[in-house]
Amino acid sequence: MPFIWIFIVILTTILINSVRLQTFTWSAPFIQTIDVYNESAVNISWRYDTSETEPSFVLLSVILYKSNTNSVYSYSRFMNGKDRFNYTSLMIVDNNILKGNAYYLVVLEYNTTYNYGTNRTLTLWGHSRFELFKMATTPIPSKQKSVKVTSNSAIISTMWPKEISCFKLEMNAELNNMNTTLPIETVSNETYWINNYRFENLSSETNYRLVTKFKCKYVSNVEYSTSVDYTEGIRTLKQEDKPNSANLSSEQRFWFFLCNFLLFNLFFI
């Protein structure tokens, strides 16, 4: 009889520990499409991760920020976890915040509650990647970069579209982990803000790893920002050797001086 009670105590302990050690697969939804209609309405759709552990309850917020301003639109919905797949899009029609040709950022904030065991609750919170869109049918201009190399130097240009305003903009370039935080030149044209970076004393005919970085904080009062790194390989050019008569053979020196003599007589006599 004592053995049975000992067995029951051990089994109960194992069950309690298994609940305490229960793990959850969690992932914030991600924005799937952003469709603009007549520059006055926008439809945002998203997808949930099907491998996510089904939560007991979900609070999903769709938040819209107008770029480089303090204007914010927010819509939240509280629902049963199993019903979340029935809520995958939102049409926004709001003349107070939506303006033609203006830029916006949208992010999904995802708050989930898991009830398990005996009166045990776990809350997980996070957000999707935020996406930039424009209230227009014209495309968003892209950031650019250009590379000019010689046998011993490289000039890297990073270009950010003026049309996309940032509260804080950072651009940088690295060559084989050689960092240059200050551009040699900052210029602009009608379309881009341009930073030029120079790397010197490079070896000829050598491969280098180039990383160009763009970081933009679109809204002043939130932490959301985009940071994009581009990595590529570049190669310096071959060192061009200048002719030197001292390094020529006797036959080559003969033809070298003969050509010079004939050219001199042709043009100066």
From the structure above, extract its key features.
269 residues; mainly beta; four-stranded antiparallel beta sheet
DSSP strand tally: 16
- The global form is globular
- Rg over alpha carbons: 32 Å
As an assembly, this protein is: single chain
Please, how many helices?
2
What's the overall average pLDDT, rounded?
81
Tell me roughly what share of residues is in helical segments. 10-25%
Strand content: over 45%
Ends distance: 128 Å
Provide an overview of this structure:
Strands 3, 4, 6, 7 and 8 form a five-stranded antiparallel β-sheet that branches. The protein has a four-stranded antiparallel β-sheet with strand order 9-10-14-13, with no helix packed on it. A four-stranded antiparallel β-sheet has the order 12-11-15-16, with no helix packed on it. 14% of the residues lie in helices and 45% in strands. The protein has helices spanning 2-20, 250-268, and strands at 30-37, 41-47, 57-66, 72-80, 89-92, 103-116, 120-127, 131-134, 144-149, 154-161, 168-175, 178-180, 185-188, 192-199, 207-217, 226-235. It has 269 residues and is mainly beta. The chain starts with a helix and ends with a helix. It contains two helices and 16 strands. Mean pLDDT is 81; it is low at 1-21 and 242-248.
